[in-house]
From TrEMBL:
Taxonomic lineage of the native organism: Eukaryota, Sar, Alveolata, Dinophyceae, Suessiales
Matches recorded under Gene3D superfamilies: NADP-dependent oxidoreductase domain (3.20.20.100)
Domain NADP-dependent oxidoreductase: from-to ranges: 47-295
Name the record gives this protein: NADP-dependent oxidoreductase domain-containing protein
Binding site for substrate: H129
Length: 310
């Protein structure tokens, strides 16, 4: 545990920092998203409850919370928000609907499950959690299948946005073609595509295509943590001597990476932690600049073996 505190792979200097130190990015007209989110998957939170983890994050100044419908964690997040006393307008809440479930189902789910469970009257960002109908295909083994279902679901999200119930719409685990479907059909790109993304797992083709489309790339398993192992993806240990060396060069215990200038990280990232010290480190990771040489070094730590396609 002591050794794991040394690093944090997050991002970003050179962008206007919000008052809590985590900068925002604009993901849609008039919608600013804090670049670091707290994820609520129970596997990532070993020694605390979801409610306690979220409350701690809010208490330390974190403002972006990310949860999905299907882990059953929306009620915990709702309780944490309420207990925190942080005004709704300061919080950025992302939730996800379980795949391409169709227009009426998504409207019902947001109005009758997500909003009541979270105790909120609007959501900042809603993502289609994965592009395929079956969880066996998670995160993305369905390619062009279920195109109609994905687009129908998007149409439901557009209605919710028109009703003022959600501010921005995005996707998760989509490939380039699946993002292009949305643009072709609706003339608008997803605000966000949240994908697995860390030092040992990043796909530059996807990154360039998202940049071109105007879709912010958000990293899950940004530290190569528990969920990366869950999907048997390669990972680089936070104890890796090459990472320690870079951190030492900056005399930092946390290692930030500029998210907006071609670095290993995406435009935004998510992590999860029960540790107060780690949470403080994560939230403070936006305070120094890496040299282009070190950015390059970190970008090229990818294992030489083929990526594990999951
Ligand atoms: N959209 C999708 O399809 C999808 C799929 C999978 C996962 N996710 C989401 O991604 C979120 C994060 O996944 P992940 O757990 O793999 O994330 P991660 O950020 O790669 O790893 C989190 C782990 O890192 C440790 N940690 C956090 N800050 C640290 C620091 N400063 N120094 C050292 N260690 C630190 C935490 O342990 P300690 O508690 O010991 O600090 C935690 O176990 C989940 O909540 C999940 O909801 C999304
Ligand atoms: C990277 O993403 C592109 C575009 O979605 C995809 O065609 C390619 O197969 C991906 N590469 C790997 C190694 O996953
Ligand atoms: C490195 O950081 C430590 C702890 O913050 C501080 O005491 C020390 O003066 C720093 N060293 C340099 C060379 O900046
Ligand atoms: C981070 O990115 C911004 C925007 O591209 C840039 O202005 C800034 O200099 C970068 N900082 C680092 C550490 O590279």
């Amino acid at each position: 545990m002591a050794q794991r505190k040394l690093l944090n792979m997050f991002a970003i200097l050179g962008l206007a920092a919000a008052s809590n130190g985590v900068p925002n990015i604009r993901i849609a007209p008039g919608v600013e998203m804090p670049m670091l989110a707290f994820g609520t998957f129970r596997v990532s939170l070993e020694t605390c409850t979801v409610q306690a983890g979220v409350e701690q994050w809010l208490r330390l100044g974190g403002r972006h919370i990310d949860t999905p419908d299907e882990y059953g964690t929306q009620p915990d997040v709702g309780l944490a928000i309420k207990a925190s006393g942080v005004p709704r307008s300061e919080i950025f809440l992302t939730t996800k609907i379980p795949g391409p479930i169709g227009k009426q189902a998504v409207i019902d789910k947001i109005l009758h499950t997500a909003l009541p469970q979270l105790g909120l009257d609007y959501l900042d960002l809603v993502l289609i959690h994965f592009p395929c109908k079956s969880l066996k295909d998670f995160p993305n083994k369905c390619g062009a299948n279920f195109r109609a279902e994905r687009l129908d679901t998007w149409a439901g999200l557009l209605e919710l946005r028109a009703m003022g119930k959600i501010r921005a719409i995005g996707v998760s685990d989509y490939d380039v073609e699946q993002v292009a479907e949305v643009v072709e059909e609706f003339g608008e790109a997803p605000a966000v595509n949240q994908v697995q993304w860390h030092l040992a797992y990043h796909n530059e083709t996807l990154r360039s295509a998202m940049q071109l489309a105007g879709t912010a790339l958000e990293a899950w398993a940004a530290l190569g943590g528990p969920t990366a192992s869950l999907f048997h993806s390669p990972s680089i240990s936070l104890r890796d001597p090459r990472l320690k060396e870079v951190a030492a060069r900056y005399n930092v215990s946390t290692l930030g990476v500029n998210g907006s200038s071609g670095t290993p990280m995406g435009d935004a990232a998510r992590t999860a932690t029960c540790s107060e010290e780690h949470a403080r480190g994560d939230l403070a990771a936006f305070e120094f600049q890496l040299s282009p040489k070190d950015l390059d070094l970190l970008s090229n730590l990818m294992p030489q073996t083929e990526l594990v396609i999951i």
